[in-house]
Design brief:
The complex is a heterodimer.
Chain A: H1 14-26, H2 40-44, E1 48-54, E2 78-80, E3 87-89, H3 93-97, E4 103-108, H4 115-123, H5 137-144, E5 155-159, E6 164-166, E7 179-183, H6 199-218, H7 222-240, H8 252-258, H9 262-276, E8 280-285, H10 294-318, E9 325-330, E10 334-335, E11 347-348, E12 352-358, E13 365-367, E14 369-370, E15 377-378, H11 384-394, E16 403-406, E17 409-412
Parallel strand pairs in A: 1-8, 1-9, 4-13, 5-7, 5-8
Antiparallel strand pairs in A: 2-3, 4-12, 6-7, 9-12, 10-11, 14-15, 16-17
Helix pairs in contact in A: 6-7, 8-9, 9-10
Chain B: H1 3-8, E1 12-13, E2 24-29, E3 35-40, E4 45-51, E5 58-65, E6 74-77, E7 83-87, E8 93-97, E9 107-109, E10 117-122, E11 128-133, E12 137-142, E13 147-152, E14 157-162, E15 168-173, E16 177-182, E17 188-193, E18 198-200, E19 205-207, E20 211-214, E21 220-230, E22 235-244, E23 250-255, E24 263-270, E25 274-280, E26 286-291, E27 300-303, E28 307-312, E29 318-323, E30 348-352
The chains are: A alpha/beta, B mainly beta.
């Protein structure tokens, strides 16, 4: 049996993209309006999330949980961070300097060691099987918090490759809560109003569209009509915010700090999106499935990650935005302790790490630990359900009480047998 | 390629590989072939007596050489028959008197490089050592550990070789650069275009120079690696490039397998005019080959699980290949019969020359 990943496992197909676009335009959200029972507190302050998705599986040994001088420790040194007693791999020197802002969870133990099942399972919070497809965390936040009056999409994704509307992320919540994806950090095509169309003509067109919407609404379920209107309104607001995507207008020193590479540019765009007020920004970085040549691979990948991630956290801190923005950086799993014949590490969900900072999170600490060789979690192990509870709590959402209403079916927003990790919460 | 020559390089594997108990990343024989040293992933250099009187080579374990930490990616025996040098991925360089029972180094230079030392080699006259590594430096050392000179080459320096006359040094990097340097003046002589072995992917850099050798007459430089297709799980055809040293001209490009076979990991010269070559790719995939630059087809080829190095025994009767055990990969927790998490090992495959 070949355990190696195929390239297409990491790709969004054109068919899926087209399907998403079609769903965004025409699909029915599927029933009654969704009602989440949210506390008053939620409405008061702006809450945002930056979700940095390291697709393929970052090695915990070569990042957050080095095990030097051990059987599986690998060739790299550990370095001291800005927090006494916490060390990280030498491949992340800039992140080491901002450890006072970070909370590293070293006790992750999850259930799935394949990409195809693991990626959605992790990003949907791996709830109990209720016969429905749960939303990705981004879609959940889009539903529970919304766009907070910006008019912009509540959930956007900056990723390599193609653009589109990733309705699949929303699961049973319906397409309105899917991700608007900006492939290669570019704005959607044909976003600008053509010069041949005057502003007045554009307004006329929109009023016609709104009337058509109203007629559409009369013959459709309310959720469906809302999704339709939402897509149009978001597109219009994006047309007004086009300068967001023009990184040439950004201070060159910022471009330098984030790095002249794909991930750096995407992270810089993400910062601008957070500054604009978008609720949930996901940045995806590919290429981490290092079954072969893991160490040279991480030696090349980690500095780019380190540069852009540390710059982002520094900037959010300097702007006072860490009080509002919950920052999460993670993969679908870690990588195996044992080093295979291709000098690579394979998939390892049994003991791995993620990191977070910002809103509602204690800073300058590690939570959970692995044994001396990194082969197992020692003490409390945390599944992704624990993290969903923790993240919702950090955002002020009472995850044990708040429920989704799926056509009258109440559904917990996170695994009901798990709980928030108190050590993480401020 | 004559039938006689082909027969001469039709090697036979021993019945059972020599079992090295842990994972090793480098190996060398002493000049007399009595000792085998191997650098581990755990900061030690394993040491064995090679029992030459047995029908097939056997090993008797001796106390390991200590003083280094982390991966001992490189080790070499000096021609004096007494000293061996090794270096680790934390930047430390050490030298041992390997015939003595004790395992402590006779000298050690802590932080000889900033981080991973990829290679330590000895000059043809045995009078100096050279090291290179991730910090982009080549450093020359006396055999008693004194720093003599330094060349700032730049890049992540992965491999190097002295010319047979010791006057120049060839250096390769993970960025796919190959250059020749004059040892006396530290001046660059020329570059060689090995760019085909490197891919500056939008996500990560892939490939680079993984192996190198100079022909005994100094006329030809061989560099090896892969033609990278993608990063992550690196794939590509194992490839050797043969350059004319005098002009820097590429004389031959030779592929030794398919994309899953990935890297040419090592070259060694056989005095009968043939290169001994190892390759390592996806877990379980690897080869040992005997090949002459003038031929299209190898004289001999056999599949082995992930060959990381080929070491001819000084007797000329056999050679050893540093491999990784079969079934070395797999997702999730793999445990042995006692429930312990299972690591991998490095079987040393012995191949015997006919006659």
């Amino acid at each position: 049996m070949n355990h190696l990943c195929k390239p297409w496992e990491h790709r969004l197909s054109r068919r899926a993209w087209l399907g998403g676009m079609s769903a965004a335009g025409t699909a029915v959200a599927g029933g009654l309006p969704f009602e989440a029972v949210l506390g008053d507190e939620l409405a008061k302050a702006k809450k945002q999330v930056l979700f940095v998705w390291i697709d393929g599986g970052m090695s915990q040994y070569e990042s957050w949980d080095p095990k030097i001088n051990s059987q599986f420790g690998g060739p790299f040194r550990a370095i001291q961070t800005s927090v006494s007693g916490i060390e990280v791999c030498e491949l992340m020197p800039r992140t080491a300097k901002i450890m006072q802002h970070l909370c590293v969870v070293r006790g992750m133990c999850t259930q799935d060691n394949s990409h195809s099942a693991g990626v959605p399972r992790i990003q949907r919070g791996d709830p109990k099987n209720r016969g429905v497809t749960y939303p990705f965390f981004g879609s959940a936040v889009a539903k529970l918090i919304g766009n907070q009056g910006t008019g912009l999409p509540a959930y956007v994704s900056v990723k390599p490759g193609s653009s589109g509307f990733i309705y699949q992320d929303a699961g049973f919540l319906g397409p309105q809560f899917g991700a608007v994806a900006f492939g290669d950090g570019k704005p959607p095509e044909n976003m600008a109003r053509p010069e041949s169309v005057s502003e007045a003509d554009e307004e006329l067109r929109q009023s016609l569209r709104i009337k058509a919407d109203e007629r559409y609404r009369l013959r459709r379920r309310p959720g469906s009509a809302e999704a339709n209107g939402y897509v149009f309104e978001s597109a219009r607001e994006l047309m007004r915010q086009q300068s967001l995507f023009d990184l040439s207008k950004v201070d060159p020193r910022d471009r330098e700090r984030y790095g002249n590479h794909e991930f750096g540019r995407h992270m810089l765009l993400a910062r601008r999106m957070l500054e604009t007020g978008i609720t949930f920004v996901k940045v995806t970085n590919y290429g981490w499935d290092t079954h072969g040549d893991n160490f040279n691979g991480h030696a090349s990948l980690m500095p780019r990650y380190d540069q852009a991630f540390a710059s982002m956290v520094e900037d959010l801190h300097e702007r006072g935005m860490l009080d509002n923005v919950l920052v999460i950086t993670m993969s679908e799993f870690g990588r195996t302790p044992r080093i295979n014949g291709h000098v690579g590490r394979d998939h390892f969900p049994e003991a791995w790490s993620l990191a977070m900072t910002g809103r509602g999170v204690k800073r300058g600490l590690t939570v959970g630990k692995t044994n001396a060789k990194g082969t197992a979690v020692e003490g409390d192990a945390y599944d992704i359900g624990h993290m969903f509870h923790t993240w919702f709590s950090a955002l002020g959402i009472e995850s044990a009480k708040v429920q989704y209403d799926n056509h009258g079916q109440p559904l917990p927003i996170a695994h009901e047998e798990m709980h928030a990790v108190k050590e993480v919460l401020a | 390629m004559t039938p006689e020559l082909k027969a001469k390089f039709t090697l036979k594997p021993s019945k059972k590989p020599l079992d090295l108990p842990q994972q090793f990343v480098s190996a060398c024989f002493s000049p007399t072939g009595v000792f085998l040293l191997a650098g581990s992933m755990e900061g030690t250099v394993g040491r064995w007596n090679v029992l030459l009187e047995k029908p097939e080579p056997e090993l008797a374990e001796k106390p390991a050489l200590t003083g280094l930490t982390s991966w001992v990616s490189t080790c070499v025996c000096l021609p004096d028959g007494k000293l061996a040098a090794g270096a680790d991925s934390f930047g430390n360089l050490a030298c041992w008197s390997y015939c003595d029972d004790g395992g402590e180094p006779v000298w050690k230079v802590a932080n000889a490089h900033d981080g991973w030392i990829r290679e330590v080699i000895v000059s043809p006259d045995g009078q100096k050592l050279a090291t290179c590594g991730r910090d982009g430096r080549v450093v020359f050392w006396s055999t008693d550990g004194q720093l003599q000179a330094e060349i700032k080459v730049g890049g992540d320096l992965s491999v190097m070789r002295f010319a047979p006359d010791g006057k120049s040094l060839f250096v390769g990097s993970l960025e796919g650069k190959v250059s020749q340097w004059d040892v006396a003046s530290s001046a660059k002589v020329r570059d060689f275009d090995a760019g085909v072995l490197f891919k500056p992917d939008r996500l990560q850099d892939v490939g680079g120079i993984r192996s190198m050798a100079v022909s005994p007459d100094g006329a030809m430089l061989l560099v090896g690696g892969t033609q990278p297709v993608n990063g992550g799980n690196v794939q590509g055809k194992p490839t050797a490039l043969a350059f004319e040293v005098a002009t820097g001209e590429l004389k031959k490009k030779k592929e030794f397998g398919e994309t899953g076979d990935v890297y040419v990991t090592d070259f060694e010269w056989h005095p009968d005019g043939c290169w001994l070559i190892s390759t390592s790719g996806n877990p379980g995939q690897g080869k040992f080959l005997c090949w002459r630059v003038e031929d299209e087809q190898p004289l001999f080829e056999t599949k082995l699980s992930n060959c990381h190095a080929v070491r001819p025994h000084p007797s000329g009767k056999w050679l050893a290949l540093l491999t990784t055990n079969a079934n070395s990969n797999g997702n999730g927790k793999v445990v042995d019969k006692d429930g312990q998490y299972r690591g991998n090992s490095s079987p040393l495959v012995v191949m015997t020359f006919p006659g």
